[in-house]
Amino acid sequence: MTVQTLTLDDTTVRRIRSDFPELDAQVNGAPLVYLDSGATSLKPTNVLDAERSFAENYTAAVHRGAHTLAAEATELFESARERVAAFVGVDADEIVWTSNATEAVNLVAYAIGNATVGRGGAASERFRLAPGDEIVVTEAEHHANLIPWQELAARTGAVVRAIPVDDQGRLDLDAAAEIIGERTRIVAFAHASNVTAAIAPVAELVALAHAADALVVLDACQSVPHMPVDLHALDVDFAVFSGHKMLAPTGIGALYGRRELLNALPPFLTGGSMITTVTLESAEYLPAPQRFEAGTQRISQAIALAAACDYLSIVGLDRIAAHEHELGARLVDGLQQIDGVRLLGPTDAAARTGLAAFDLAGVHAHDVGQFLDDRGIAVRVGHHCAQPLHRRFGMTASTRASTYLYNTTADVDAFLDALTGVRSFFGVSA
Residue ranges of the Aminotransferase class V domain (predicted)? Predict the structure, then answer.
């Protein structure tokens, strides 16, 4: 692949599309229009080749064997960590491999719980929660950044509080300033919503959290694949992201943590590869990131994730963000012109990422999705693992179209054109 243009115009995107074999598919007799990258992205050939190459040429356990294949596998594995770390602006020893972002959030929450019951020694003292301490989330969170904190609160006596959103799904900063206070120990929020597409005011929330000496946990699943993200510059304490949303395979994700915090956290999973000395009575653990990587690792998947980061870097995250902004604006404008559509999230396209969730009056989201699928258009339907947010808007489900670097204006127009026929198809009057 070679991408040289300053913008991702449709000609450039068509060249990019040639790297994605799945885009040649026909669905129900129509060319595939894939608008579900917010759920999971398609994979380019360089990512598929990277994982295949490891399986065909370098299969061995990492950090264990002394033979040549094991050494080569370990070098590839740790090179992948370095490239992924550089992609998000951090150091290699601040990246912990996980199976996905959900596991990464759970890792932090359960490790803090372990610290609370006295594991980890003096270094972990700052993580310990007491009854009445507060964990602050937002009304817009994906369940993966909500339920682990609910469970941590249940185990420790802490209280979960939520920053509300306004009618356009934007976080209420005045409420945040009132909620985040002296009892706040953790503030966890999404960089960008997977429902409203709203981009969070990260700097303001980090400032509020750190003024209260609270830890910040950032869900970056909907930002790292789509825009330049420098986690050091954002000054968050932990962040999570998932490979399958950024051109990589399923089964691989990452936790970022500031070095000193990772090294102070007690382990979450225990076993082989994360220890220094073991007796029948006790064990001592390696520094991060290895102390959080017990057992056989996701080796080929990590290598493929690094290949995905390489691909995105070649295209350019700034150009991808600009391209998706244009597609998102086209989505928002087109949806607002269709009778019966209620758009979720800000109406100002500049405040959004390139996805759009909506309700279509009189037609259930699942029926909308089936109608579109019959025409080869793949979208997401349901509550998108964000039931509290949907409840805030008085609904149980929505339809979501989400764009990525391989989508064209023709994809968006095909979706909008098909959507105009949904209500009449189901006999719903205007």
Answer: 33-415
Instruction: Give the pair of three-digit tokens for residue 147.
Output: 């339920």
Residue 396, classed as helix, strand or coil, is coil
Checking if the pLDDT of 329 tops 80, the result is yes
- Give residue-wise pLDDT tens across range 349-379: 888 999 999 999 999 999 999 999 999 999 9
Contact between residue 42 and residue 17 where contact means Cβ atoms under 8 Å apart:
no
Taking a C-beta distance cutoff of 8 angstroms, is the pair 212, 362 a contact?
A: no
pLDDT mean across residues, the chain: 95
Q: What number of residues does the chain have? A: 430
CA distance 98 to 107: 9
Is 309 a known active-site residue? no
Is the pTM here over 0.85, yes or no?
yes
Q: What's the 3-state SS for 173-198?
A: HHHHHHHCCCCEEEEEEECECCCCCE
Q: Name 402's bridge partners.
A: 36, 355
pLDDT for res 430: 61
Strands of 199-308, DSSP E = 215-219, 238-242, 253-257, 275-278, 283-285
Domains of the chain by range and CATH? Answer: 10-40+317-422 (3.90.1150.10), 50-313 (3.40.640.10)
**Whether the Cβ atoms of residue 150 and residue 106 lie closer than 8 Å to each other:** no
**Element of type H or E holding 95:** strand 95-98
Task: Quickly state the pLDDT bin for 4 (edges 50, 70, 90).
Answer: very low
CA distances (Å), 65 to each of 46, 69, 102, 269, in order?
28, 8, 30, 22
Query: pLDDT at residue 5 above 70?
Result: no
CA distances to 199, 230, 365, 397 from 227, rounded to whole Å, are: 11, 10, 28, 27
Q: What is the pLDDT of residue 11?
A: 85
Sign of CA dihedral 47, 49, 52, 58: negative
The Cα-based distances of 72 to 15, 77, 172 in angstroms read 33, 9, 50
